[in-house]
Design brief:
One of its GO terms (biological process) is lipid metabolic process. The chain has 531 residues and is an all-alpha fold. It has helices at 6-10, 23-29, 34-59, 66-75, 112-118, 135-149, 155-182, 196-218, 245-251, 258-271, 282-285, 287-291, 296-307, 310-333, 351-359, 364-419, 440-448, 458-463, 470-475, 481-498, 507-519; strands at 80-82, 88-90, 227-228, 231-232, 429-430, 525-526. It has 21 helices and six strands. Helix 10 (258-271) crosses helix 14 and helix 14 crosses helix 16 (364-419).
Amino acid sequence: MYERSTNAHKQQKLSSRGRRFSASHFLRTSSTSPSLYSVYLYTQMIAIQRTSASLVGATTGARSSPATSRRNHRAAAASTVTRRDGMRSHVTSMERRTKNSFRLPAIAMPSPEVNEQMQTMTYNETGKWRENFDLAGWAKEIREVEKEQRSDKYHEEDVKHLKKILGWANMCYYGGLGVMFLLPQLGVAQAFGANVLGAFMMSTAICARWTMVGHHVCHGGYNAAMTEGNEIKGRFHRRKFARGPWNRIIDWMDWMMPEAWDVEHNHLHHYQLGEDADPDLVERNMKTTREGPMPMWARYMQVAALSVIWKWFYYAPNTMKELFARRAREAEKRGEESYQPYTTGSMPSTVLTTVQSAFQGNFGAIIETAKCFAPYATFQFGVLPAVGYAIGGAQMAMATLATTLLADLFTNLHSFIVIATNHVGDDIYRFESETKPRTDDFYMRAVIGSANFRTGGDVNDFMHGWLNYQIEHHMWPDMSMRCYQRAQPKVKAICEKYGMPYVQENVFKRVGQLVDVMVGKRTMLVWENGD
């Protein structure tokens, strides 16, 4: 009863979509005897048992630091599979959405064809674009665009453009100061003692200096233009810009310490985009809110409050945590004693966690955070009100303080809208495996792990903080602002040619995506799940 003709058996070959045979199907269609099938079934079950043991062992360890993440990644190298596009992915990441459960592999006929199909990623509906995606061909064309943009023929144009943007920022800032100090003397009404126009102009300037000037200079986007031979010739080189107390005052008057931001952003975020070790991974950072018992209305209130205080409440302390973590790793490599006052592990450090640590007897975090805050807070909320007092007495001093506080709320909100939205949404990928810089995979992740906003025109790009070119920026972090303007249409066209998703949407629609992920209404795509 188990016998079938040879021709009938051949008609049951696996399709090109990788269909696998079940045990019962095997019995119905195979000419193999029951006894031989029992031996085969037994060997398959042994293999499944070993696979399940390795999966459980791989998913029980908690990740406590980026260093631990890299050790776990190396330890799991034996559990990687090769997908159709040549990329690597972790078997252990395939079932993230089923709370660390694992899927037993389908029992397939013991043939090379089926074994090859079993090692091919099964794509979900959102991942259909990956089935025939030509990564090598796509990356080749992307590198041609990169080569063109790195030409030294653009250096003079790029530096001239940078100075123009800095000039706009300075006009906003000093214009805001003028409005703040002069309009009250002319009897212009103010809101609750604060000059709203002056606050808006100052806030725009503070955001611009960080997101456009400091951001791209500290990435090294103008290094080549600022170098002659081996000698640094200009101010806008990452080794000179904002270095030292005086340069921080004139180049980087903000809540964050430049050195700490360099570690957190330039190194960890850019080269571990969307991975668990990415300090800016919104879905992970908001886990308590997303999965906690808080009602939905309270979650929205929390997000609204965070949007106007996030730079000093969350971002600055967390950059300090990453700075000290790096120093601790370097000290351990030298065999020296390490020091890490921030003790939140893989979760972000905030002002709240530093205060909690102080109540537990650990004053290191709150002291280091205060040092980080001191230059900006002293100037904005001390020096400027003192100038106001000199001009118009106590009333002017209070009006100046109110205006600078309002400016800080505005610049927090502005930067939250254009920064926090860059790598989040249910159409954006996160990753549970690592990649190497400058590889084809690295460039691909920059596209599918980022979202652009409306692009084109200096005024539009200025108001977006030049963060509307996030895809191109994550491909090539060390390029100038003008490079991204020139490259963006070409990159988008190449992605459309090869069928790769290129997310570009109005910034306020992206805010909706961000908020929904923060409160738990949306979930990001996961590359290793076949999304």
